């Protein structure tokens, strides 16, 4: 038998969680010796006034605040590089990322580009899309303050960006991208429209399912040195705990949060779920649904999602990942039947009379039921895709090798084609 990996790498940022935690950002920055920050947010939040409130609260602690409020929904290499050029002369001690995953990833990328000028985003993109260059040195402290319950970016050491010329999304993974502090305040999610709440929740759901079913850390070849061990180490006992808790919370509270935005218990639970799932997948990794989601988002032509302010065609990330999840988990079921069934049970499925031999459709059916109850997308056709798009979608998914290696089964182009085909109409 070949030598297999025996070491788990796991990390997460310090966390402040609870309604009202936003008011303590200034205290935490002062405690860290930070006297000036760039607050990165988006136009929608700026119009609602939350960034102004946060800035005033921080300024009361004697900290200077500059605001960049044009973070793009579903950011790209181009949008981040344009922002970095605009802010090139700004000197600050640290960053506040206020918003969904798009704003948090934009802030992480700006921290990288402004801390180490001279390189473009493409240099850091994971291979084969980019050069996979390591970040050359420390970044400045970054406080991540999510206003959606979805991406988990407040807990992870990676970003996901669109690649403009390739019309695909990919990531940058480096421990230095991990926020210095995550401040998770469920009250910041109360203004989310139902469709955005649902899509964000789908991201939590697939994060937890993918990390829970990823190729285990100890079924991978041993790495030749610690430097070769990736951030995504595979399913492991530590990440499993967070994934299970996230699944339990999503099963109980996602539909409630979508149907009633002022259900404080449901909003709080979904903020917990997003954070917990981030702590899980941020170390274990994701696989097929996320690999497919990147070209689904990148190749979109005309789709305009409900509830999102973007003035251009886009597929929200959570909607993109859930679109292939049912078919993907049917494909991975034979590797870990018990885990797939346990995930379904945590989401609310009744396993009475279900055997491992006949349970391949239980998790897919559970996922599709949740999507239906929350008025989610009925397959890739919902976004305007058809069978003629399959070659481009498969090619885009194959570029996500850092994710596909996390799949518990080896994935061929034909496998991806079948999964995407089965996902056309849900």
Task: Write a structural description.
The chain is globular, with a radius of gyration of 20 Å. The protein contains 17 helices and 8 strands. The mean pLDDT is 95. Helix 7 (194-213) runs antiparallel to helix 8 (237-259), helix 10 packs across helix 15 and helix 12 packs antiparallel against helix 14 (362-373). A 6-stranded parallel beta sheet has the order 1-8-5-4-2-3, with helices on both faces. Strands 6-7 form a two-stranded antiparallel ribbon. A hairpin with a 4-residue loop joins strand 6 (158-163) and strand 7 (168-173). The chain has 426 residues and is of the alpha/beta class. It folds into 2 domains: 21-184, Rossmann fold, CATH 3.40.50.1970; 194-422, Dehydroquinate synthase-like, alpha domain (Up-down Bundle).
Strand content: 5-15%
Task: Name the overall outline.
Answer: globular
Order of helices and strands: EHEHHEHEHHEEEEHHHHHHHHHHH
CATH topology of the largest domain: Dehydroquinate synthase-like, alpha domain
When the domains are counted, the total is 2
How far apart are the first and last residues' alpha carbons, in Å?
Answer: 41 Å
